[in-house]
Amino acid sequence: MRIEWWLLLSVYALSTGILFLIPKNKIRLATVAFLFKQIITFLIGLVVVELGLLEYPVRLFASINRTSFTYEYYAFPVTCAIFTVWYPHNRRIFIKLGYYITFTSILTLGEVIIEKNTDLIKYIHWEWYISWITICLSFYLTRTFCTWFFAKPED
């Protein structure tokens, strides 16, 4: 089996294991974040691939979808659910900013390493900083949506 398939299996195992870090009282929040992130990645992922900016040579469901099902529909939404559940609401702005920067940088670094060393993703007209910006923006959009969704109505 090629290294790419082992990586895909590892991502599923790791992402599933990470789900156990969600406290029971925040499962609804995690579910909303997960599903909203899937909407974002579905739309943006398809546009990026169809415009020829990125390519996923090795992927699941290759005959159905040209995006990375593993990343776009499972690993990234799971990470966003964890991001949202453990977000430091009542902390100073520097802590919140650091939280965004840390999550975004780790995901971008992982993507760059995978892009350089495997056939799971290939940048065509894309750069690492575009990934960093889009990942950070999608975290912000998801968190904003979840904050709105769970806001207490004013009487």
UniProtKB/TrEMBL annotation:
Q: What are the entry keywords?
A: Membrane, Transmembrane, Transmembrane helix
Membrane-crossing segments per the record: 6-22, 34-53, 73-90, 97-114, 129-151
Instruction: Cite the InterPro entries for this sequence.
Output: CBO0543-like
This one is known as Uncharacterized protein
Which lineage ranks, top first, belong to the organism behind this chain? Bacteria, Bacillati, Bacillota, Bacilli, Bacillales
